[in-house]
Amino acid sequence: MTILLTSFSEAESEICTIRNIVFGEEQNVPPEVDWDGKDEKCLHALVLGEKGEVVATGRLAPEGKIGRLAVLRTHRRRGAGTGMLRALVEAARGWGLGQVFLHAQTQALGFYEQEGFRVRGESFHEAGIEHYYMYRHLGDNGDRA
Ligand SMILES: CC(C)(COP(=O)(O)OP(=O)(O)OC[C@H]1O[C@@H](n2cnc3c(N)ncnc32)[C@H](O)[C@@H]1OP(=O)(O)O)[C@@H](O)C(=O)NCCC(=O)NCCS
């Protein structure tokens, strides 16, 4: 598994392909919600499969918000999501941020919890899907508290 960090302009077509399949077709997220105009300002992660094809994508916004993690169904539960998440967390640490945060779909809470993210507050709805706010502190010693 290869993980790349890139810009939206470098990888727009691959990012669009994955997100349209996972969020658009699979989860019925309206395109105007997914394509929120913030991608140009984000750092993007791509995961490449065995043949060099893009199988997953995710992004990190300048303020430390991680989002749009999407792994093709055929490539799930093989570590792609965790690999991307770790790469984006390390990028945020490299930027000197003290914390990263995200809006987690309820079905994915366990995925983020095992990487040290904690829930804060009550659930809310986004794109018709139940979410929780989650955060992780980035201490100098890798603190996950
Ligand atoms: C959520 C998602 C990004 C996880 O990616 P992934 O590559 O399948 O995750 P990993 O293989 O790194 O999973 C590592 C561990 O996280 C946990 N995990 C993975 N997906 C999970 C889920 N949906 N719910 C709970 N735990 C999950 C498991 O413990 C898993 O380990 P295991 O396979 O040994 O049991 C992927 O399922 C996905 O793209 N889903 C559709 C889009 C989506 O829901 N995005 C997140 C929006 S907040």
Write structural notes for this entry.
β6 and β7 (129-137) form a beta hairpin. The protein has helices spanning 8-26, 31-34, 80-94, 109-113; strands at 2-6, 43-48, 54-60, 66-71, 99-105, 118-126, 129-137. With 145 residues, it is α+β, with helices and mostly antiparallel strands. The protein has a single domain (2-137), classed as Gcn5-related N-acetyltransferase (GNAT) (Aminopeptidase). The model has no long low-confidence stretch (mean pLDDT 95). It is globular, with a radius of gyration of 14 Å. Bound molecules: coenzyme A (COA). Coenzyme A is lined by residues 22, 69-71, 76-82, 104-105, 107-108, 110-111, 114. Coenzyme A (COA) binds at residues 22, 69-71, 76-82, 104-105, 107-108, 110-111, 114.
Main attributes?
145 residues, 3-stranded antiparallel sheet, binds coenzyme A, 4 helices, alpha+beta, Aminopeptidase, 4-stranded antiparallel sheet, 7 strands
Number of strands: 7
- Percentage of residues in strands: 25-35%
Class computed from helices, strands and strand pairing: alpha+beta
Oligomer: single chain
What is bound: which ligands? coenzyme A
**Taking Cα atoms only, what radius of gyration do you get, to the nearest Å?**
14 Å
Helix content: 25-40%
What is the CATH architecture term? Answer: 3-Layer(aba) Sandwich
Please indicate the count of domains. Answer: 1
Question: Tally the helices: what do you get?
Answer: 4
The global form is globular
